[in-house]
User: Which sequence fits this backbone?
C-alpha cells in the first residue's frame, strides 16, 4: 500500500503542497466544504491522477458521475506519475454545490509540486544499488529473500592507524599512498599477484562499506521551503557509521555524518546531480543485545516559514483567482512538519567459521625453543598443498605455542565483498598481541570477546569447532553447526564464557551445539573429535577418539602373538609398556571405560544435532589417562587432534607397538582414512606438544576458503 498523507483544503485561500512520487494524497473534501454544500466536483490538470472513494469503492476520474455527495467516508485520493518541472505546475480544484444548485458556493484550490525522494540500497543483494519494487523497510532470509547487508568494518586499511576502522570516524587507505601493505616482516608471507594488497590504489575503506543512495528529482527551488533529513534511530546509532563526500572523490572530503552521537544529517541536494551516495559501515556484530538489523530513514520536512509566496494564489469569494502576492506571510516560529519518510533496513553480516573440510588458504604455526622439527613438518605439509605458511616467531609468541587456542579464523560476507576476520579468544596469554599486531590489516578484520568473570581453559578456541554442512530431519544447516565444549550434563564445572557463547549464538547462521568436554583435563572438543573430507555420503566423516577401538586393536595384536610389543619405541626417558601390560592394567581400563562413556554421550548428541548415521563416524583408536577428579589427557599422542589440509592429514605420531615393523596404531588409522582418498602424515609432536597436554591441531591454525553458499540464502 502506498504511503498516504492527509491534506486539509480551504475555500478561503489556496493550498500548496508537495506530492512525493509513489505516494498518495488524501484530500479532506468534507472538512473544507461550505456550510450549506451537499455535493462536490473535482478536476485536475493532466499530471494528476484522481480517485474518489465512495461507499468503499475507489473510482478513477474522470467518470460518468459529475458530482459526488459530501457523505461521511467520501474522500478524494490523488497521485502523480512524474516529477514536476516547476513549482506548483499541477493543480486540483474542488467545487462545492448546494442541493440542485448549478453555481458553486465555493472552490478549494490545491497547487501541487511532484518530487522524487527515494533512499535505495542493494535490497536485491546483487552487489549494486538499484531501484526495486521490493519492500526496503523489511529484511527476509532465504533464496527469495530481500534486504540490504552491512559489513562490520573491522579491518585496518591504514597499517599506521592505531585502531580498527570501525573505531574511528575517518576514511582510511593503504597508508594513503597506494603502496602495497605487508604484514610484520618477521613473517614469511607470499601473496599471489591478484591479492587485494597488491592492486592499484583505491579507497579501500569505502569498499568495506555498503552504499546507500538518495535520489531526488524535481524543481530544486522546492528545497528552499523543505528540508531533507537523513536519520537513524537512537537505539541503532552506536551500531553504524555513515560517511558522505558530496560530489568529491577525494578521501579527505568524506565526512562522518551519522552514527554515534550524530542522529540526523541535513542533506542539501545538488543542483546538478540527482543522486547523493552515502557509505555505511557496521560498527558491531550481532550479539545478545543486538539483532543485527539497523534502519535508516530520509524524511522530507516542510518549513512553514520558507514556503515561497509564488505558490499562493488568492481565491475570491466567487471562486476566481487573484494575484499570488495577496497571500499573507506564514506565521513565524512554526516547527517543521514531516510530509514523507522513506526507510531502508540493513542486516549486519554475521561472523562465520569454516570447517576442517574447507580448502586451506594459509597455515599458521609458532616457532618456540624446542619445536624446529615440528615447524618443518608443518611447513612440508603446507608445501604439499601449495598453501602459504606463516611462522609466528618467538618475539611475537613469547613462548606461547598454542596458536589454535588463541584465535579462530572466519570471515564476513556481503554481496559486494568478502574478507577474513580473526576471532580473538579471551585466553590472552603469550600470543595476546599476535592477532592485532600481525594479522589485523587491510581486508583482514578482527573481533574479540572478553570474559569478565575470568577465562577458563574452555574459553580457548581448541574448544570451538564447526561441522561441515549438514541436514537434520529436513532442516538444512548449509554453513554447518558450531560445536563448543561445556560441563554439561554435570552440575557446576567449567563452561565457555557467556560473552563468547552469546556472540556465537547471535550470529544465527551456525546454530551452536553444546558438548560435554569438562571430563578432560584441558577440556577442549578438539581432543576427542575432528572432521575430514570424504568423497561419498555427506562429504565428510566425523572422527571420534575411541578407547574401545584401541582396546579391541591391542587385543587383536595380543592374540596374534605380539603381546610383548612396546609403546613409545625410540623415545628416551619414556616408560615403555607392552601390549600385555596395558591390557592387564585394570585401573587404566576402568578409567578408559569412563572416558568412553563420556565420548558416547557426545556421540549421541552429535548424531542428533548433525543428523549423522553410524556410517558417518569413524572410531580412531585412542587411550586416555588421569582420574575423574582432575580430568583425562591422552595416554599417547591424540590422533584425532590433527591438521587437515584438504586431502592431506598431519596426524600426531602415536608411537604405538610395532607389529611386523609397522606401528599398529598408524596402520589402523591409515586403513580407516586412506580409502577416503586421504594421505596420512604422522608428525612427531611428543616432546614439543604432547607432554604439554596438546597436539598438532592445538599447535597450528588454518585460514580457510569461505563457503560457496551465501549466508543470506539460508533460513535460520
Assistant:
Amino acid at each position: 500500500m502506498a504511503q498516504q498523507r492527509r491534506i486539509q483544503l480551504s475555500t478561503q485561500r489556496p493550498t500548496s503542497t508537495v506530492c512525493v512520487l509513489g505516494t498518495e494524497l488524501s484530500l479532506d473534501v468534507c472538512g473544507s466544504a461550505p456550510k450549506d454544500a451537499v455535493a462536490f466536483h473535482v478536476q485536475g490538470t493532466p499530471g494528476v491522477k484522481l480517485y474518489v472513494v465512495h461507499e468503499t469503492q475507489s473510482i478513477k476520474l474522470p467518470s460518468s458521475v459529475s458530482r459526488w455527495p459530501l457523505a461521511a467516508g467520501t474522500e478524494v485520493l490523488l497521485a502523480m506519475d512524474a516529477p514536476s518541472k516547476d513549482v506548483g505546475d499541477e493543480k486540483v480544484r474542488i467545487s462545492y454545490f448546494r442541493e440542485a444548485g448549478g453555481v458553486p458556493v465555493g472552490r478549494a484550490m490545491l497547487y501541487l509540486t511532484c518530487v522524487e525522494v527515494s533512499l535505495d540500497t542493494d535490497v536485491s543483494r546483487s552487489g549494486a544499488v538499484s531501484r526495486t519494487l521490493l519492500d526496503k523497510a523489511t529484511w527476509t532470509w532465504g533464496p527469495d529473500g530481500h534486504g540490504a547487508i552491512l559489513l562490520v568494518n573491522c579491518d585496518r586499511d591504514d597499517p599506521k592507524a592505531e585502531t580498527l576502522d570501525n573505531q574511528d570516524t575517518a576514511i582510511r587507505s593503504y597508508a594513503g599512498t597506494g603502496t602495497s601493505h605487508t604484514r610484520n616482516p618477521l613473517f614469511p608471507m607470499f601473496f599471489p599477484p591478484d591479492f587485494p594488497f597488491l592492486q592499484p590504489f583505491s579507497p579501500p575503506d569505502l569498499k568495506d562499506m555498503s552504499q546507500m543512495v538518495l535520489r531526488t528529482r524535481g524543481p530544486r527551488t522546492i528545497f528552499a521551503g523543505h528540508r531533507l533529513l537523513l536519520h537513524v534511530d537512537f537505539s541503532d546509532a552506536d551500531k553504524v557509521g555513515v560517511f558522505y563526500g558530496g560530489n568529491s572523490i577525494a578521501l579527505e572530503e568524506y565526512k562522518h555524518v551519522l552514527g554515534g552521537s550524530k542522529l540526523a544529517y541535513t542533506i542539501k541536494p545538488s543542483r546538478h546531480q540527482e543522486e547523493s551516495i552515502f557509505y555505511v559501515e557496521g560498527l558491531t556484530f550481532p550479539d545478545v543485545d543486538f539483532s543485527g538489523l539497523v534502519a535508516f530513514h530520509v524524511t522530507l520536512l516542510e518549513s512553514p516559514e520558507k514556503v515561497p509566496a509564488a505558490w499562493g494564489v488568492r481565491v475570491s469569494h466567487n471562486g476566481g483567482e487573484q494575484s499570488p502576492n495577496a497571500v499573507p506571510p506564514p506565521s513565524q516560529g512554526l516547527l517543521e512538519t514531516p510530509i514523507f519518510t522513506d526507510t531502508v533496513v540493513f542486516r549486519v553480516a554475521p561472523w562465520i567459521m569454516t570447517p576442517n573440510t574447507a580448502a586451506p588458504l594459509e597455515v599458521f604455526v609458532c616457532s618456540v625453543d624446542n619445536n624446529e622439527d615440528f615447524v618443518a613438518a608443518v611447513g612440508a605439509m603446507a608445501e604439499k598443498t601449495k598453501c602459504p605458511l606463516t611462522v609466528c616467531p618467538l618475539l611475537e609468541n613469547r613462548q606461547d605455542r598454542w596458536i589454535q587456542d588463541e584465535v579462530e579464523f572466519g570471515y564476513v560476507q556481503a554481496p559486494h565483498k568478502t574478507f577474513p576476520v580473526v576471532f580473538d579468544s579471551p585466553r590472552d596469554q603469550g600470543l595476546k598481541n599476535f592477532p592485532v599486531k600481525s594479522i589485523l590489516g587491510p581486508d583482514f578484520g578482527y573481533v574479540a570477546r572478553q570474559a569478565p568473570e575470568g577465562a577458563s581453559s574452555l574459553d580457548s578456541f581448541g574448544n570451538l569447532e564447526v561441522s561441515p554442512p549438514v541436514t537434520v530431519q529436513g532442516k538444512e544447516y548449509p554453513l554447518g553447526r558450531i560445536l563448543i565444549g561445556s560441563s554439561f550434563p554435570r552440575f557446576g564445572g567449567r563452561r565457555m564464557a557467556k560473552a563468547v557463547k552469546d556472540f556465537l549464538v547471535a550470529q544465527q547462521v551456525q546454530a551452536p551445539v553444546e558438548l560435554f568436554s569438562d571430563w578432560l583435563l584441558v577440556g577442549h572438543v578438539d581432543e576427542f573429535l575432528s572432521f575430514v573430507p570424504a568423497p561419498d555420503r555427506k562429504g565428510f566423516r566425523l572422527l571420534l577418539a575411541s578407547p574401545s577401538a584401541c582396546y579391541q586393536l591391542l587385543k587383536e595384536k595380543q592374540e596374534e602373538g605380539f603381546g610383548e610389543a612396546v609403546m613409545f619405541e625410540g623415545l628416551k626417558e619414556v616408560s615403555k609398556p607392552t601390549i600385555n601390560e596395558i591390557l592387564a592394567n585394570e585401573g587404566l581400563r576402568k578409567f578408559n571405560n569412563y572416558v568412553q562413556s563420556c565420548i558416547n554421550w557426545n556421540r549421541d548428541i552429535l548424531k542428533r544435532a548433525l543428523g549423522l548415521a553410524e556410517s558417518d563416524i569413524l572410531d580412531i583408536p585412542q587411550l586416555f589417562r588421569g582420574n575423574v577428579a582432575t580430568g583425562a589427557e591422552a595416554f599417547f599422542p591424540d590422533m584425532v587432534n590433527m591438521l587437515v589440509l584438504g586431502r592431506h592429514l598431519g596426524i600426531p605420531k602415536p608411537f604405538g607397538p610395532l607389529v611386523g615393523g609397522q606401528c599398529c596404531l598408524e596402520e589402523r588409522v591409515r586403513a580407516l582414512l586412506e580409502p577416503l582418498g586421504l594421505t596420512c602424515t604422522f608428525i612427531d609432536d611428543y616432546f614439543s606438544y604432547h607432554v604439554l597436554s596438546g597436539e598438532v591441531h592445538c599447535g597450528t591454525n588454518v585460514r580457510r576458503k569461505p563457503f560457496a553458499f551465501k549466508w543470506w540464502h539460508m533460513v535460520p
